[in-house]
Amino acid sequence: MTIQHRAAKTRLALIRSAAEDFAERGYRSSTLEAITRRAGVSTGALHFHFENKAALATAVQDAAQQVLARIVADSRSGDDGALQRLTDASQELAARMRVDVVLRAGFRLGWEDGRRDSDGLHRMWQECVTALMGAAQSEGALAADVRAEEAVLTIVAATTGFEALSQEDPVWISHSTFTGFWRLLLPSLACPEALDGLDPAGRQQTRGGTAG
């Protein structure tokens, strides 16, 4: 193993260990000692890669944003209409959170008292929902009395709220929870012609996975 490969492997191990600690205990309660112990590396190795805990938290959030960015990119294309792609994207987000501790930790860090200026994940998701609701409106898929901007607030609040609640009980990000949410909401959002073709369970392969 080359020095560069070993260094990259150590950095990834530290990011994952930090994510596990942040996801379990929160940013304030996590310690560099616990993170290095999880990663199986020395404190010196940690400081070679990260100046402090804040820098490590930023690296976790950056890694989580890369995961979310792929979900957002996938939602921008496809043969389905925007409402179905939005449903699919939320189901994919929930599925990834069930198996990806880095993504879960990234979202949790956005809620932390000491990290509220680091809201990139929440902002990215809101922008995704806004774009897809705008596309649905342009397609004529929304019911006549639906205001896209109000629907965005509801969807973002609910989906990120499920994520926050899942810190205590993972059922909040289960496939059935998100399916139930869309089964309730889609009839209020979609016009009758669009509603017939929508699947609240999502059309992507997003239903598997265990906690990671």
Explain what you see.
Helices cover about 70% and strands about 0% of the residues. The protein is mostly helical. The longest helix has 23 residues, at about 5-25. It is elongated, with a radius of gyration of 19 Å.
- Rg over CA atoms, rounded to whole Å, is 19 Å
Helix coverage percent of residues?
55-70%
Order of helices and strands: HHHHHHHHHH
Largest sheet: none
Uncertain segments are 206-212
End-to-end distance, in Å?
A: 27 Å
**pLDDT averaged over residues:** 90
Highlighted features:
elongated, 10 helices, mainly alpha, 212 residues
Summarize the SSE layout with pairings.
Layout: H1 3-25, H2 32-39, H3 43-49, H4 53-75, H5 82-99, H6 101-111, H7 120-139, H8 148-165, H9 175-189, H10 192-195
Short note summarizing the structure:
The chain has 212 residues and is mostly helical. Helix content is 69%, strand content 0%.
